[in-house]
Hints:
By secondary structure, the chain is mainly alpha-helical. The chain has helices spanning about 1-45, 50-105, 110-130, 140-149. Residues about 120-130 have low confidence and may be disordered.
Amino acid sequence: PVLRLLEAQLQDQRREHEEEMEALRNQLDLMQEDLENQQQAFLQTLQLSPEVQVELGLQQEITRLTNENLDLKELLEKLEKNEKKLKKQLKIYMKKVQDFEASQTVVPVERRQHEQNMQVAVQRKEKDFQGMLEYYKEDEPLLIRNLIT
């Protein structure tokens, strides 16, 4: 049983190897045929007058540049699509920030005075305690906004 399994695996590997070799041979044949065609075209080009050679060279260059322009145009379209998507996201985030700021501007006068007192206290404490800050949980959004601005 083990010997038969090994033989079967060996035959499978041999078959895969032969298939790969055949594919590579076909690829080599196609490349050789392409090379011969290019050599023929080159020899024919050499037999042409210099003016015609220049014209053919220009046509090839125009074709190359046209293909390059099409690739660049495709890339530009992708970038523009990405830009539109990012602008939409930015608008959404700006709206959220505006909504957040609008909700924070409706703060009672007493709380504002308390916040001003806290800011003064924080400024004094900064001298004594590096990096320590005491605040109420409901004041967190306002502190974040102040830190950002």
